[in-house]
Amino acid sequence: MIDLKDLRENPDRYRTGAQRKQVPVDIDRLLELDSSRRETLSEQETLRAEQNRLAKETGPKIGPLMGQLKKAEGADKDRLQAEIDAIKAAPAALKEKIQSLEGTLKVSEDEFRSLLLSVPLPPDEDVPVGKTADDNVELRRWAPAGWDYDKSFEENKGFKPKTHIELCDSLGLVDFPRGVKLAGTRSYVLTGMGMRLHQAVLRYAIDYMSDTNGFTPMSVPVVVKEEAMVGTGFFPGGREQAYHVDEVSRGSGHDLFLTGTGEVGLMGLHQDEILDEDDLPKQYVTVSTCFRREAGAAGKDTAGLYRIHQFDKVEQVVICPSDETVSREWHRRMIGFVETFLQSLALPYRLLQCCTGDLGVKNADMIDLECWMPGRGEPDADGVPTGEFGETHSASRLYDYQCRRLNMRYRAGGEGGQGTTTFCHSLNNTVAASPRILIPILENYQNADGSVTVPEVLRPYMNGIETIG
RNA sequence: GGAGAGGUGGCAGAGCGGUUGAAUGCGCCGGAUUCGAAAUCCGGUAUGGCCUUCGGGUCAUCGGGGGUUCGAAUCCCCCCCUCUCCGCCA
After folding, report:
1. Which of A1, A178, A192, A235 is most buried, by the most CB atoms less than 10 A from its CB?
2. H-helix or E-strand spanning residue A121
3. Local structure of A387: helix, strand or coil
4. pLDDT grade, residue A416 (50/70/90)?
5. Does a structural domain hold residue A400?
């Protein structure tokens, strides 16, 4: 959520921001609703003040009079009743006015709230303006010794590459038909060494973030209340992307939603809390199963492990004080963690500065990391793919947008501090999403004989196995 | 899932229709006392919104939502959560 006060003062900043992000939102309508709302609110407040004043004044009088009324008879009773009615008349009139204003407020409340929630965080000035992912800017690329981006896979390795789908099939790593039988399109079953490799990457990623980088490992719910989805900024915009568990129609008080990333659980942890500044930054890492409906992606990446409804992801989040410099520094570091991670796996990758149109509502800045996938891309003359980068990581910097929605603040000055409360800043980044990351692993580690070498850092997690197949 | 009890400020815990944003204790902050500390004493100690001549004013909030009433922490309804017992169970 954006800062409403700032919106009032700098509406153009938000108009431009929304425009650059290609998010249609009627800022003028929001401002209009805000001002009429405040007008009604202050009118109502004045009446309430008067009502409270009267209540304090007449309260002690009415009580005894009511008591006397019970015992009184005849003319005395009529006189007392008249007196009570006279006292009640003024507040009763106020009550009617207040209720009528309440009605006025209710009419626009829903529209106001949903408009406010849908105003995107303006992208930072140093984020390149662009419309789609095609306008993203490559920052740099890295490759392990023995890999040259200017040469084809065959020139680099001496044989034509297989796609991960072919490898999974020939090595018995994934059973796609049975996955589809069980759960429909975009479903799969990891089998044997496929499952072990999947578990190995995830566990390696968790250990790396915990042991080497000081993150606290967590297991968090993946089925959450709507509040958590709205709070983390995935709703209302991404409602279509989430699986919805309808519990209300079965008599429960609230529906549930399956999370599409561990970020929801990790960030939701401190919803409605005031943290101690001394406890910041919070560095959390989780591995969680992620569920995505992939609505609107029909026909895109339908084969293989690239775009699927369910996967497991190790995700890192950082909650830090409200300071742009600190938050930018964390962004760099979190990207650094992933680069070191990928370098330890010797996977070729590149960094992309996402353009404004590719950011999504809650980000001020986003860096994507793409691994080289030899089995993707246009086919050559022999029908063998020529390779392509594929997104495996995404590092977001959100300022206080998410923490505002989550109502997550901290108090300056440490324990018992006297400082005022401030919304925290938050950041998140993938560490490893599997099985997608198995694609570059399998494709880059394949051998001429059709086997796949297990990356050295993963061998301890696979009982020392060096080769699959 | 069934039966019962309960959700009040950072914590514990009163209040159960009338000047209650809320007693009391603990904690915390400031001060006094002290060479210093403990103890003691005094004062202060929620969050958010709106308005402001920046002194302050005002409204809302006692799990959440709705209702009754001139007036609700207190009464009614729905929901959520916690605890105890029973049942079921990875």
Report:
1. A1
2. none
3. coil
4. very low
5. yes
Please state, rounded to an integer, the average pLDDT across all residues of chain A. 91
Domain span including residue A381: 133-468
State the Cα–Cα distance between residues A299 and A302, nearest whole angstrom: 6
Strand B contacting residues by CB (7 Å): A 4-5, 38, 41-42, 45-46, 48-49, 51-56, 58-60, 62-63, 66, 88, 91-92, 95, 251-254, 274, 409, 411, 416, 418, 420-421
Among residues A344, A448, A337, A349, which one has the least CA distance to residue A392? A349
Residue position matching structure tokens 């297991």: A219
Q: What is the ipTM of this complex?
A: 0.87
What's the confidence (pLDDT) of residue A414?
A: 52
Question: Which residue is it, tokens 């680069």?
Answer: A339
Element (H, E) at A291: strand A282-291
- Which nucleotide's C1' atom has the smallest distance to the CA of A419? B29
CATH number of the domain encompassing residue A388: 3.30.930.10
Local confidence band at A309 (pLDDT 50, 70, 90 cut-offs): very high
Is residue A307 annotated as part of the catalytic site, yes or no?
Answer: yes
* One-letter amino acid for residue A7 of the chain: L
Write the pLDDT tens digit of every residue in A26-42.
Answer: 999 999 999 999 998 88
**CA-closest candidate to residue A349, choices A303, A314, A393:** A393
* Partners of residue A426 on adjacent β-strands: A319
User: A273 and A178, same structural domain?
Assistant: yes
Distances (CA, A) of A341 to A208, A335, A411, A433, A460: 8, 10, 34, 13, 16
Compute the CA torsion angle A30, A31, A34, A38 (nearest 10 deg): -170
Same domain, A161 and A245: yes
Please indicate, yes or no, whether residues A93 and A168 belong to a single structural domain of this protein.
no
Cis ω on the peptide bond leading into residue A122 (within 30° of 0)? no
A292 belongs to the catalytic site: yes
- CA A91 to C1' B22, in angstroms, rounded, equals 24
Amino acid (1-letter code) at residue A256 = L
Q: Specify whether A33 is located in the same domain as A109.
A: yes
Is A186 an annotated catalytic residue? no
Total tally of structural domains belonging to chain A? 2
b/e map A325-358, b = 16+ CB within 10 Å: eebbebbeebbebbbebbeebbbbbbbbbbbbbb
Rounded Cα gap, residues A101 and A94, in angstroms: 11
Does one domain contain both A63 and A200? no
Q: Is the same domain home to A257 and A112?
A: no
Separation CA A257–CA A245 (nearest Å): 6
Annotated active-site residue A394? The verdict is yes
Q: Which nucleotide is nearest to A56 if distance is taken from CA to C1'?
A: B19
Is residue A172 one of the residues assigned to a domain? Answer: yes
